[in-house]
Backbone:
């Protein structure tokens, strides 16, 4: 028995645009302890890591101290697997215009090896290892959170590309003409329509542009969230239902283009927006079949993550951690 | 020495929308004999195979008879590597609405094993084995012929996807609103703008919509080809230059989206349109850098096939043939 096998745990960090969720995970994928901090509100990466380590120390102590931890895995937006960096992440104020060597920073602070990958890649690995994508060799994971992320699996392997940054499908241009301005500085990205913020934006646009009645009008325009839209749609609000239909249509159209790339057997959706259920999934399916090339019609499954909350991402991040040397 | 190594040759067939080019190739990639027939003008696949075999027999005899041929490899539009079929190929009148078991048909007629893949995949394999993509692990081959095809290489492997049909990037929707009608029945496909026929279509559109002077006006509108446009552009014709610029802009924009998928180190262009050289390549490069996500800027090479004529596709098809069992 070598030193590695004597350490039973790995830390997984799901670093999202809004929250950072930590889990201490054993080799069977059981999450032994969990904690979280807000991702935003820090001046720079140093402050973020400092706050993260302070919070982590509590649960590390709970499981038996740092001696029980083998390594750490991070899933983060614009994460580079090859270099352990976060680079120019449009949704992270402290990593917007810089290259942050986050794996090295955590490694130094904790004294353990740290590996890092794109947050959506981590979710895809989690889903493939523990979730609904078990056994799938060709699928595309699409995370619908603050932004839209993706992890592409081809022949059972995650696609990292030449530079470690493959799979940024949230920034595929869906509307090259008159598209919405994206956080990345370009126009018409998928993310501007199909993220949680995109849904809220659709609501504000539709409420401002029309005089149509809607339960959403009881809320302050600038405070409307995608959850509000889902709740109102559930209550039968026509305008809210239309917004989810619009969002699903756009996602189906995007998936039809993605099919022409890697012809996956499934798309797996993950993140807050999927809570809307068939309100979102039905228009995705219908729009996909309407838009896709004949060749691909009727071949694809649309699945929703089977792992609760951010488990898929935390477990995926931890799986990345197990593979550190 | 087994029977296989005693047979020194493989037949490669580059089955294009217009021409079908055959080559008899040795293990070092030397093309020993070549011949061609028109692809179109046949009532059905049976007639096509019959004509192909008649023509092939002449060069088979030249190299020493069928006893010297180990196998055959085919690169064909909508070719399925897993099944050896051509399925619903929009540009092939005799395979438009049917599944054609072309590998089996040739195998039966010639008495040798036959393997088949997408024509652009074959070109990518040819380029990777013998051409400018030698040593590249992550690249996308884009063929600009009658249609637009693609072969995607990730980590040194061709992407076939779940069903053998991955990599139909000519049918990525570039203009979801008011796009041109494509042979596939949908609107706004890349192929409607950036194929040879797309360039001719751009010329006809621009000539009809404006009264601008152009050398192209000396030609009959319906007979204008992409080559005519290149020739006139070379002579300094502004309108013709603009058409190539428009085409290159669209290709650059498309490649910027493809980067977000597999983040390749290079795009390799192949086919008739590349004869226009920098007239096409310059706007591709500029448009790509203008459209691509910050993350990918300045990382990609734009290359043109180094293999003459249809050699890349024939050699690629033959490479597929070497791998038959």
Residues:
């Amino acid at each position: 028995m070598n030193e590695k096998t004597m350490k039973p745990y790995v830390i997984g960090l799901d670093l999202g645009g809004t929250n950072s969720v930590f889990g201490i995970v054993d080799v069977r994928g059981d999450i032994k302890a969990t904690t979280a901090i807000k991702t935003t509100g820090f001046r720079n990466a140093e402050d973020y890591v400092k706050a993260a380590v302070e919070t982590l120390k509590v649960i590390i102590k709970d499981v038996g101290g740092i001696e029980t931890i083998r390594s750490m895995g991070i899933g983060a937006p614009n994460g580079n697997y090859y270099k352990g960096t976060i680079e120019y992440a449009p949704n992270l104020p402290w990593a917007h215009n810089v290259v942050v060597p986050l794996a090295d920073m955590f490694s130094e602070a904790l004294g353990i090896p740290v590996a890092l990958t794109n947050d959506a890649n981590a979710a895809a690995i989690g889903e493939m290892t523990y979730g609904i994508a078990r056994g799938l060799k060709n699928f595309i994971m699409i995370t619908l959170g603050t932004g839209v992320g993706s992890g592409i699996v081809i022949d059972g392997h995650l696609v990292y590309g030449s530079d470690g940054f493959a799979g940024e499908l949230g920034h595929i241009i869906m509307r090259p003409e008159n598209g919405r301005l994206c956080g990345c500085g370009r126009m018409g990205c998928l993310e501007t329509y199909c993220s949680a913020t995109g849904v809220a934006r659709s609501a504000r646009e539709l409420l401002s542009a029309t005089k149509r009645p809607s339960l959403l009008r009881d809320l302050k325009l600038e405070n409307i969230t995608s959850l509000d839209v889902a709740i109102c749609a559930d209550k039968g609000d026509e305008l809210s239902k239309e917004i989810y239909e619009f969002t699903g249509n756009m996602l189906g159209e995007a998936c039809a283009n993605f099919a022409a790339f890697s012809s996956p057997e499934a798309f797996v959706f993950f993140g807050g927006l999927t809570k809307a259920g068939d309100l979102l999934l039905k228009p995705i399916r219908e729009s996909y079949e309407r838009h896709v090339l004949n060749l691909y019609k009727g071949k694809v499954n649309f699945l929703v993550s089977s792992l609760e909350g951010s488990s898929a991402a935390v477990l995926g991040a931890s799986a990345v951690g197990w593979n550190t040397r």
